[in-house]
Amino acid sequence: EVVVKIELFKNGPLKQNCYLVSSSRGETIVIDPGSDAPGIFRTLARLSLEPLAIICTHGHFDHIGAAGELQSQFRIPFYLNKGDHDLMRRANLYALVFKSREHIKIPEECNDLIDGEVLEIARMRLTVFTTPGHTSGSICISIGDLLFTGDTIVRAKPGRFDLPGGNQTILENSIRSLVNKVPVEAMCYPGHGDPFEISSLQF
User: Which of 46, 130, 134, 193 has its CA 20 to 30 Å from the CA of residue 83?
Assistant: First the structure.
């Protein structure tokens, strides 16, 4: 059984959660690097972590903002559900709308994430759940009883659905389906705010 460690890197004006998820050997998956690539580089170096992949739960600018720079620096694969590829390509436009001044380097190569797919990265086993509703291509990722929910579930409630790609009915259906597929003791690590138990979910 691989011991999984989670380092939180909170960043950007929207206080987005980037997670550095690593094995005991320091092999690391970077989830939702939203901004401040230099800060992420420094954190990886300080903790002697070796990034092997970048995974984004959706394509909003505050979740993919540092992915391109990480990809260029480390030459590692980047993953995003294809439903959000167009959203990712327009990230700089949406950043302007939210008054962000940080220019976003769009990742050059992008690997799709498919519902039910199991990835073996950094000696960790990741299961992908497509959860549209916050955006068309939103996903959640489980590693054992750890669940990274992006903005699908935030603060134990459904995330926003009033942004590009959002739909309330689809989001609520996605969450109902997700709850039936993950352990009842799952601990959720959201895109914003603090972790919470899936059993505390309210909607």
Answer: 193
